[in-house]
Amino acid sequence: xxxxxxxxxxxxxxxxxxxxxxxxxxxxxxxxxxxxxxxxxxxxxxxxxxxxxxxxxxxxxxxxxxxxxxxxxxxxxxxxxxxxxxxxxxxxxxxxxxxxxxxxxxxxxxxxxxxxxxxxxxxxxxxxxxxxxxxxxxxxxxxxxxxxxxxxxxxxxxxxxxxxxxxxxxxxxxxxxxxxxxxxxxxxxxxxxxxxxxxxxxxxxxxxxxxxxxxxxxxxxxxxxxxxxxxxxxxxxxxxxxxxxxxxxx
Length: 250
Ligand SMILES: NC(=O)c1ccc[n+]([C@@H]2O[C@H](COP(=O)([O-])OP(=O)(O)OC[C@H]3O[C@@H](n4cnc5c(N)ncnc54)[C@H](OP(=O)(O)O)[C@@H]3O)[C@@H](O)[C@H]2O)c1
Description:
This protein is α/β, with parallel strands linked by helices. Helix content is 40%, strand content 18%. The chain has one domain: 3-Layer(aba) Sandwich (Rossmann fold).
């Protein structure tokens, strides 16, 4: 049995993945949720707040067995700029929180694999180290793409820092969830378009198959970029943004 820490387990793809893994005796799931939930082994953390994320990571490091898997699922597509402790919400949730959560877990030596739920839309991102972290360049569409690009880039750098850990970033699919829901004409249009998107359970089954792949990274220190279940070359945007993303980290 392998322990698996799953953020974003309360709704959407994360809830579907938690349900799929709960039915499989090969896995013992440790959900990380923002508000207390009636889920076995749940840990609460607000991933937009690094101190909260780090505390959860420290608590989990004492609970999971060596060889554990960490899945960064939590995500947000904000319609407007909002600061959390001085940082734009999507940047904090996609970059600062996951880094803070995993720091004590990786240092403990108990996490062997990290799967980051990224987004193919990262190719539309434009990271500005002087503007993106505080949302000075906020856009209700592009900020999501930019912060998912930053998330992929920071995790690629983490793979270099922790070569004994197997890292992958995956575009999970185009999935019918609440992500990005908003009011107004754009929200109405999005809700209509989403009706044709795949169910979270279909995406969860794909992620279960990806979790069964014995190794994602081609070599120590590298992270693989998957588009659904296909390993792909990293898009040039990930290379181009690397220095800017690193420069912005606190
Ligand atoms: N849906 C798609 O088509 C699609 C496509 C590409 C990539 N993705 C990625 O897939 C992942 C899951 O998305 P989804 O579509 O399932 O979205 P969702 O239904 O909106 O679920 C988002 C999850 O993230 C959690 N979360 C957000 N902010 C958090 C915070 N500050 N602290 C703790 N948890 C937080 C939410 O918890 P609460 O219940 O507490 O809000 C919820 O469990 C995201 O990383 C997203 O970028 C989705």
